[in-house]
Design a protein that fits this description.
- The protein is built from 6 helices and 9 strands; from the N terminus they run ααααβαβββββββαβ.
- By secondary structure, it is an alpha+beta fold.
- It has 2 domains: about 170 residues; about 100 residues, no CATH class.
- Strand 7 and strand 8 form a beta hairpin.
- Helix 1 packs antiparallel against helix 2, helix 2 packs antiparallel against helix 3 and helix 3 runs antiparallel to helix 4.
- The longest helix has about 70 residues.
């Protein structure tokens, strides 16, 4: 550029020293030609610098977008944050493609330009290196996101499987608990009845002076109880006697303040060990 300026200045000086119109025209034509060369080279250089600026701007924007893409290990992003990550990656892919195209255009412009400069070539090479470096980092981020998605999917399958197993176990446990409760209730179930002799005979409970000799009696006439909570029974009668067999040391049969008999069970386990039926004859 300095040489061109010197030539132009020299020619202008020479032109000023010429007296004839013909000579002036000749030198003016040469000046115009040289100015055109200078203007063309300036335009080429400006175009190259402008394209380089676009590439550098693109690199900066990609770096900013890259900073917004975070793939945290061991936690799953919400749907909204993951959508933002995907949008940023899509923006970065488009910007990367644009930068690669701009760098390719720079090389073409530099090769076609009459303005040769090793420094410009080195700058373009540096831009190319930055673009490729960013491309590698983005590929690593995409791979990390894909790996995390795979891990999360695997964890979700495991959690779903564990949830199903837990649900099945809960159902089994519920069924077993129900069965145990039913069996426990059955185990602690007993029946009692008190009544006069005619009443008990009528229901088939007393036959020939004997109690519950067979299964042919009215079971609905008896009251079902839980032996764990059944501890006493009022007969509302001044005459009462047990017709079923129960250990005598497991209960008391005494009169209350009104002179009516009341049964108190003092040892449930022994009382019901012989029979799960209690029949009391009253008058």
């Amino acid at each position: 550029m300095k040489k061109i300026g010197i030539i132009v200045a020299g020619l202008l000086l020479m032109a000023s020293c010429q007296n004839t119109g013909e000579t002036n025209n000749k030198w003016q034509e040469q000046l115009d030609s040289l100015q055109t060369i200078v203007d063309n080279k300036d335009a080429e250089l400006n175009d190259i610098v402008e394209t380089m600026t676009e590439v550098q701007t693109g690199i900066r924007r990609i770096a900013e977008a890259e900073g917004r893409v975070t793939v945290a290990d061991g936690s799953q992003e919400s749907a909204s944050s993951r959508a933002i990550i995907i949008d940023n990656l899509e923006y970065i892919r488009e910007a990367m493609q644009q930068n690669r195209e701009l760098v390719a255009q720079l090389r073409e412009k530099l090769n076609a330009s009459r303005f040769k400069s090793d420094k410009l070539k080195n700058l373009v090479d540096g831009l190319q290196t930055q673009v490729e470096s960013q491309n590698l980092r983005i590929q690593e981020l995409e791979a990390s996101l894909a790996e995390k998605d795979s891990t999360i999917l695997s964890q979700m399958h495991k959690i779903d499987s564990l949830s199903r197993n837990a649900s099945n176990l809960a159902e089994v446990s519920k069924t077993q608990a129900s069965t145990v409760a039913r069996q426990d209730k059955q185990l602690h179930k007993a029946w009692f009845v008190y009544g006069t002799k005619p009443e008990l005979k009528e229901q088939g409970i007393l036959k020939g002076g004997k109690v519950l000799q067979d299964g042919d009696f009215n079971k609905d006439y008896l009251t079902e109880i839980d032996i764990r909570t059944f501890k006493e029974l009022k007969t509302y009668s001044k005459s009462a006697s047990l017709q079923t067999t129960h250990p005598k040391d497991s209960y008391t049969l005494t009169k209350d303040a009104n002179g009516q008999y009341e049964l108190r069970i003092t040892n449930s386990e022994r009382f019901w060990s012989v029979s799960k039926y209690l029949v009391i004859l009253v008058k």
